[in-house]
Each structure stands twice: as structure tokens, then as C-alpha cells.
Amino acid sequence: MPDFRFAPLNPLRFPIVTRFYKSHYPAGKPKKDEVIWTAEGETGLCGAVRFKQFDTFQLLTGMLISPSFRGRKLGVRFLEAVDGQTQSTPCYCLAYRYLTPLYETAGFRVIGKSQLPAELQGRYSSYCNSGKDLIPMLHFPIASR
Predict the structure, then answer these.
(1) Residue 60: which H helix or E strand, with range?
(2) Tell me, what's the pLDDT at 107?
(3) Ramachandran angles phi, psi of 28, nearest 5°
(4) CA dihedral 123, 33, 90, 92 (to 10 degrees)
(5) Is beta strand 44-53 parallel, antiparallel or unpaired with respect to 35-41?
(6) Nearest to 94 by CA among 67, 132, 142
(7) What is the average pLDDT across 45-69?
(8) What is the pLDDT of residues 15-41, one digit of tens each?
(9) Most CB atoms closer than 10 Å: which of 39, 84, 115, 140?
(10) PROSITE patterns this protein is in (predicted)?
(11) Has residue 1 got a pLDDT over 90?
(12) d(CA 110, CA 55)
């Protein structure tokens, strides 16, 4: 299995991540106020995940694995690598339904819409009303799994 490096984004590399999202997931626009982690292999950037920060929680958003690396368990390894981030502050995720098992392997559990913070309930409804098949999830630290 190839060797990958997982690390918080060096702010000087923000333009590279922006281009990465634009190439593979144009709807996912990184913002400088987000905590961004990257996955890099021998050929360069092959994954990124963003954490939008709120006052009392965070939202894992826009996880992206380069199409040429999908199906190789890189997403699982990436979620393991950011475990410290997901445990630092309550972490929610609005996952595509087909990715629910992936997030469950990393300690996320399906929750009801009413269990989302008020700041996320409207966002979740809006995404679903636009046709996205999403499931609300919350990360549970290792001690409570």
C-alpha cells in the first residue's frame, strides 16, 4: 500500500487545495477560516478534508479523495489520521448516505435531524431540499463508543 502523509494544511499551500477542490469537487470551496487537513502521496495532493468551526462544535465538510485514489481505503486512513481533530470539539458530519459506513468506521454515528445544533438544521434541510441524500452524523470519542 502506498505511503501517505496526513497533516494540517500549511496556509501557504491554500491555493493548491483550492485548485484541488475546483478540479474534483467544485461545490466544495475551501475557506481560510476552516481547519483543513491534507493527504499527500508520492504524486502530491490526493485528499483534503475541511472542518468548519462554530462556537461549541465543528462540522466535518467537503472530504475529498482524488478519483484515482478512491476504492483504496484512503478515506478510512484519512479519517483515522484526523481523529485528534474530530475528538477535540464535538464534530458533526452531513454525510452522503452511501458514505455512512465509511464514517461509522471512524466513530461517527447516525443521529436525528433534531439532534443537530440549530446552526446546522437549516443547512441540512436546505441541502436535502436541493436533492442531496444526506445523513446527519456525530462523532463519538473512543471512550464513549
Answers:
(1) strand 58-65
(2) 94
(3) -90, 95
(4) 30
(5) antiparallel
(6) 132
(7) 96
(8) 999 999 999 999 889 999 999 999 999
(9) 39
(10) GNAT
(11) no
(12) 22
The confidence band for 143, taking pLDDT boundaries of 50, 70 and 90, is low
Q: Which of 53, 132, 142 is nearest to 97 (CA)?
A: 132
Q: Which residues contact 114 (CB under 8 A, 6 or more apart)?
A: 121
CA 53 to each of CA 19, 41, 89: distance values in angstroms, whole numbers, following the listed order: 22, 27, 9
Query: Which has the closest alpha carbon to 137: 114, 113, 117, 108?
Result: 108
Task: State residue 20's pLDDT score.
Answer: 97
Q: Which three cell numbers stand for residue 102?
A: 465509511
SS3 assignment, position 25: coil
Task: Answer yes or no: pTM beyond 0.90.
Answer: yes
Categorise residue 107: left if φ over 0, alpha if ψ from -120 to 50, beta otherwise: left
- Given a contact cutoff of 8 angstroms between Cβ atoms, the answer to whether 121 and 136 are in contact is no
11 Cβ partners below 8 Å, 6+ apart? 32
CA distance 6 to 81: 6
